[in-house]
From TrEMBL:
It comes from the Eukaryota. This is ABC transporter G family member 11-like.
């Protein structure tokens, strides 16, 4: 490496180190976040392949007012480094090394950091304004007035250049809405509402053309010095154009987990040139860097390798060794040491997001709007239910009170209690979309699982009432089921409880399976078993005791649904030949008549609460277990850093990191 480069780089870094909170480009950032990491290793264990290092001894820093870009070929470890710094690594990874915030092992208060993921998990039915405004209400503290929150949302939308699309719906698979670049910007808007001092972005320009990429990146770059507060921005990026590259202060170049270069972006070109890899004239430097260190296609090009061209593996080796022995590396290490020595503040730990009740209220309203606008969530189901109800009403029209009507009534009630409730599964894909948004927001600490469960339960209630009462009425009266408003009310209420139950069951399934197809199969399988063991297809006394009777019959909600419906229908009825409904209940259907139908209904509502509580527990357990597993797998405790949840019951991996 030429002496000039190392000197110029050294000057830049020495000037920028000083007391650790002043740098040449950006002046004083006393209240910003300095992030340092030293000798960071991330390994994954695989039973077949053993353990593999996906990040090998990374050392670096990120400072307020600066934009650090992490670059490298696909699979080089960019997202892994970003995740490690943000405390989001998967539980199958092991991590060693030290990550410090302002030179300390300390907590990141809520709102201090934000993470924009690669996928845009947004509610497709909401407009840009609604998306950002709802998010502002969820995240910003109650000390801010509604007008202030609205103003913050509008300002952020303008900052991201989305004012022209403010009333456009996000759109998704069912309807065209925003472009890919606009969606990326909405995702960024949401995460910068709290004005975080530390911002992680995972490939914010993926899928964008070069003009859109520049637009998005320049907006992000402008954030680093807004409001006179120095923001620390770390972004992974695939292939920046020349213009985008100019926006970076520092560059971290990775190849197969190894650091090929970490230092000022402006000095990277000279580093490559001085080590025998000059950038050809007219070639974009970042393209040149990536081309030099990308060995994915080595085998294909081996034979056509131009004379004198060094194989990629060797090039990477030369560069990593050159970097390790360079002054730049020494300067980075001393910069890290300087930052760690500085007399920095402990980050603010006060909880500052919206109150729990505000979150429940906002989530209920947002979810209601989404359910109302998404035709697949409830409306389509309502139409299908009505058609089915009409079908049932005609098939079972005017049953009368003959002996044969006993069997027909049983079949009709059984079909309603199992198949109509089973079809609640139809809203699962829409629920999974909502869950994706919830998962992103929960990981970023916007709110907790309890607020989500309450919001979802309240917002779905009116739709479920409609879907149980309208088709319920259509199917109840034409066949001539037991008259009286009390009987119909019980019937519709029981249908409502069953639909709630299936929705709750599917919530649990959604929290356990990776995608909605598996969810539908699992949910349908569980319900199929429950229907079979519910005591209709085989009467309770005929059910084989192991598994089917004990425990399935007692835990299947269908048992209580059938029995409640049967009691509601047959109790007090008289059929031809003076046959008593109560006797039919006991002898023909083997219903437990020792307790009232209202007990069955209460059990069903109890199950709803239990299922929703179970969902909450599962999410909480995975949330709590993950860091514990990571901690258990991590090695020596001395080398671990803990960025604890500073604030809340909604503590998330972003705030609660075990490194
Ligand atoms: N939790 C994990 N378990 C197993 N392997 C993993 C895990 N996380 C990452 N890897 C592997 O580590 C390597 C680096 O992954 P990473 O996602 O960090 O790469 P990347 O540079 O961000 O790639 P891309 O640009 O394609 O997103 C990949 O080979 C990936 O398969």
């Amino acid at each position: 490496m030429s002496e000039e480069i190392s000197r110029s780089t050294a000057i830049e870094i020495v000037e920028s180190s000083g007391n650790g909170s002043r740098n040449k480009r950006n002046g004083y950032y006393g209240d910003g976040v300095f992030l340092t990491w030293e000798d960071l290793w991330v390994t994954v264990s695989n039973r077949k392949k053993g353990s593999t290092s996906i990040l090998q001894g990374a050392t670096g820093y990120a400072r307020p007012g600066e934009l650090l870009a992490i670059m490298g070929p696909s699979g080089s470890g960019k997202s892994t480094l970003l995740d490690a710094l943000a405390g989001r690594l998967g539980s199958n990874t092991r991590q060693t090394g030290e990550i410090l915030i302002n030179g300390r092992k300390q907590a990141l208060a809520y709102g201090t950091s934000a993470y924009v993921t690669q996928d845009d998990a947004l509610m497709t039915t909401l407009t840009v304004r609604e998306t950002v405004y709802y998010s502002a209400q969820l995240q910003l503290p109650d000390t801010m007035s509604i007008a202030e929150k609205r103003e913050r949302a509008e300002l952020t939308i303008t900052e991201m250049g989305l004012q022209d699309a403010i009333n456009t719906r996000i759109g998704g698979w069912s309807s065209k809405g925003l472009s890919g670049g606009q969606k990326r910007r909405v995702s960024i808007c949401i995460e910068i509402l709290t004005r975080p001092k530390l911002l992680f972005l995972d490939e914010p320009t993926s899928g964008l053309d070069s003009a859109a990429s520049y637009y998005v990146m320049s907006r992000i770059a402008k954030l680093d010095q807004r409001d006179g507060v120095g923001r620390t921005i770390i972004t992974s990026i695939h292939q920046p154009s020349n213009e985008v590259f100019q926006l970076f202060h520092n560059l971290c170049l990775l190849s197969s987990g190894k650091t090929v270069y970490f230092g000022p972006a402006s000095a990277a070109n000279e580093f490559f040139a001085s080590n025998g890899f000059p950038c050809p004239i007219h070639q974009n430097p970042s393209d040149h860097f990536l081309k030099t260190i990308n060995r994915d296609f080595d085998k294909d090009i081996e034979e056509d390798l131009p004379e004198g061209r060094i194989p990629t593996e060797e090039a990477i080796d030369i560069l990593t060794k050159a970097y390790k022995s360079s002054d730049i590396y020494e300067q980075v290490r001393s910069q890290v040491a300087e930052i760690c020595k500085q007399d920095s503040e402990v980050m603010e730990k006060k909880r500052k997001h919206a109150r729990f009740l505000t979150q429940c209220n906002v989530l209920t309203r947002r979810s209601f709007v989404n359910m109302f606008r998404d035709l697949g969530y409830y409306w389509l189901r309502l139409v299908v239910y009505i058609l089915l109800a009409v079908g049932l009403a005609t098939v079972f029209l005017n049953l009368g009170t003959s002996y044969r009507s006993i069997q027909a009534r049983g079949s009709l009630l059984m079909f309603i209690a199992s198949f109509l409730t089973f079809m609640t599964i139809g809203g699962f894909p829409s629920f999974v979309e909502e869950m994706k948004v919830f998962e992103r927001e929960r990981l970023n600490g916007h709110y907790g699982v309890t607020a989500f469960v309450i919001g979802n339960s309240l917002s779905s209630a009116p739709f479920l009432v409609l879907t149980s009462f309208i088709p319920g009425a259509i199917v109840y009266f034409p066949p001539g089921l037991q008259g009286g408003s009390q009987h119909f009310f019980y019937f519709a209420l029981l249908l409502y409880a069953c639909m709630l139950l299936v929705e709750s069951l599917m919530m649990i399934v959604a929290s356990l399976v990776p995608n909605y197809l598996m969810g539908i199969i699992t949910g349908a399988g569980i319900q199929g078993l429950m229907i079979l063991g519910g005591g209709f297809f085989r009467l309770p006394n005929d059910l084989p005791p192991p598994f089917w009777k004990y425990p399935l019959y007692y835990i299947a909600f269908h048992k209580y649904a059938y029995q409640g419906m049967f009691k509601n229908e047959f109790e007090g009825m008289r059929f031809e030949n003076n046959q008593d409904g109560d006797e039919i209940l006991r002898n023909t259907w083997q219903v437990e008549t020792g307790y009232s139908k209202w007990v069955d209904l209460t059990i069903l509502f109890g199950m709803v609460i239990f299922y929703r509580f179970l969902f909450l527990v599962i999410i909480k357990i995975t949330e709590k277990l993950k860091p514990m597993i990571i901690a258990f797998l991590s090695v020596p405790p001395k080398q671990t850093t803990q960025i604890m949840a500073a604030t809340s019951a909604t503590a998330t991996p972003l705030q609660e990191q075990r490194v």
